[in-house]
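Appendix C reproduces, verbatim, an entry submitted by the partner laboratory led by Prof. M.T., so that reviewers can inspect both the input and the predicted structure.
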Amino acid sequence: MSIAEDDRQLRHECGVFGCIASDPWPTDLDVAQIISLGLLALQHRGQESAGIAMSEGDNHTHFNVKKGMGLVSNIFNDEATKKLKGNLGIGHTRYSTSAGSEEVNCQPFVVHSAHGALAVAHNGELFNAGRLRRMVLARGVGLSTHSDSELITQALCLNPPDIEIDGPDWPARIRHFMELTKLSYSIVIMEKDRIFGVRDPYGNRPLCIGKLMSLTEPDKEEGWVVSSESCGFLSMGAKYVRDVYPGEIVEFTKEGFHTVSVMGRPYNRPQAFCIFEYVYFARPDSIYEGQMVYSVRLRSGIVLARESFVEADIVSSVPESGTAAAHGFSMKSNIPFAEVLYKNRYVGRTFIQPNARLRRLGVAKKFGAIVENVAGKRLILIDDSIVRGTTIGPIIKLLRDAGAKEVHIRVASPPLKFTCNMGINIPTKAELIANKLTIEQLAKHIGADTLAYLSVEGLKEAVTEKMPNRNAIEVGHCTACLTGEYPEELTF
């Protein structure tokens, strides 16, 4: 992400990860270490807390669980992961939206029902959480947090509509939950000796499947992983297989994985995968819908150059998620790319600015200008998005102080104008700068010579142009934060 999270206030809720070893059990595979690596790769999706729940697969009453506040690397050191024994497990890294940043809200949530232990990790935000909460409470179920994820866990423990004969029918319970709420969620669920991967019928939040390959026998499979993103697969010796389909329930056992069922969308509405995953949230090396996120960002820059060309000497970016779009802009415009900002990677979120002068120059703690590339030049600076407009202005001032002749801002996404309500913590409409100022007013406000955004249609073009099934009738993306058009009406 190109700007520190505490400046932008645009945050993703979390990342989920699951791993199960292939037969035979007990496994030689270090499942807890693989989950820890998976969560580390998903750290950009949430930095407040993390947790892992492990199962030996032979005891339905007990899981090995460790959760805590902070970064994955601080919670799951070598000593901690060695204590997490098991043949399968699920993990979670979190940033809060629907509940506060407290240890009680750390996931995975584990409940002990009449049918045994159940662990749940969730990415997203339930559109109708208020109504579902009232229903659960009316059944006499107590809730200890305000988290949607605990709500999901308790809803799964309610009896499904059909009669259960030989113990709980967890797939039926999951389908029952999906009937109660259609979005927004990607969930990993663990009970005893299997994991379920579940994605809401609109496919709003991402979830994908990977195959763990033997390091000594390249054709031998050693297990399966399910993750919010594929970006960590190569680092753990896994191959991307495919996305979990919208509405799909996938069951993972030591024998492999299979589809339990696929729930359709009401009234044949289109799929609504979050388009901002491509713009901002995902790591560029992740694969969504059969294409690399980096390639979509590159194409966004190409379309942006076509829509909003301006004469300049160099194209550059606000590091780092604006860089792929800047390269695309450079390719299309034939204006050379050059770095103009150096990002200090050693500045943490808790940096203290002790006086007014340093607060006003706050960007200086994060960026330095490469003066040789800036002085006397007309610059096109590409950013991935503008939320409040509080950081881009100081960056422009930094470049002008370094001798920039002109600074033209180009944004590789449309203006953010609406809140999300589906798992992205976007400020209120009143706080979004695009609702306060016109483009011309905003350019003047931040000190840019010109400012232009990628159009909504341009972003859709960049996302779908190389998509393998782009002409399929079910393809669709949620643009609610850009257009105010939500997949379903918000209910309380």
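Residues 120 and 153 are 6 Å apart (CA to CA). Additional entries are available on request from the coordinating office.
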